[in-house]
């Protein structure tokens, strides 16, 4: 009997998983190249290193309100000293829209001569105000319709709220409720005064006229 060469029984290596891994890797590499090429060289808008621009957060304006009264010397019990704004000094938030309501219990002191320019509304939203006549014995009872005005006849002005540094002037109708809107800016302290000669003495320029706590005061705009 002829004895031939013995067959080899070395195990055969399975290369299937290796080929699969190489194929997947090649596909991933191709995808990265494709995206990078589109982003940088082929007119695409994507930038791999681009960061999202920060979003500017702008706080909404604070909406607030302020109620003032103009009371007479008789109401205050001060006799000849005269009328006053109550309160005469106040604080408002900065960068805010403020609705101001003034209830005027006094009667008109006509503006004359150069002072007649203070009969015009300036510096409020729309350079306007709303005026409604009231019953002085029952101030919550209106005696006429609300009117939107840009000024008053000089003979009907009782007082003014004038803030020179802010360009604001609002003439106050006697025996009326006056409403207007202001927009405050940056923080600061501003003087206001009444430009109607509503005090005592010659020409009405004494007493309460221009006196802090009466017909003058300060507005503080706070952050």
What does this structure look like?
This protein has 223 residues and is mainly β. The protein folds into two domains: 16-50; 62-222, Cupredoxins -  blue copper proteins (Immunoglobulin-like, Sandwich), CATH 2.60.40. It has helices at residues 16-40, 73-76; strands at 62-71, 84-86, 90-93, 96-104, 129-135, 138-142, 147-149, 157-163, 168-173, 176-183, 188-193, 216-222. The protein starts with 15 loop residues before the first helix and ends with a strand.
Poorly predicted runs of 5 or more residues: 1-13, 30-57
The beta-strand count equals: 12
Structural class: mainly beta
Succession of helices and strands: HEHEEEEEEEEEEE
CATH superfamily of the largest domain: Cupredoxins -  blue copper proteins
Helix content: 10-25%
Portion in strands: 25-35%
- State Rg: 39 Å
CATH secondary-structure class of the largest domain: Mainly Beta
Question: Termini, distance in Å?
Answer: 113 Å
Shape verdict: globular
The number of helical segments is 2
Domain count: the total is: 2
CATH architectural designation of the largest domain: Sandwich
pLDDT averaged residue by residue: 81
How is the CATH topology of the largest domain named? Immunoglobulin-like
Main pleated-sheet profile: 7 strands, mixed
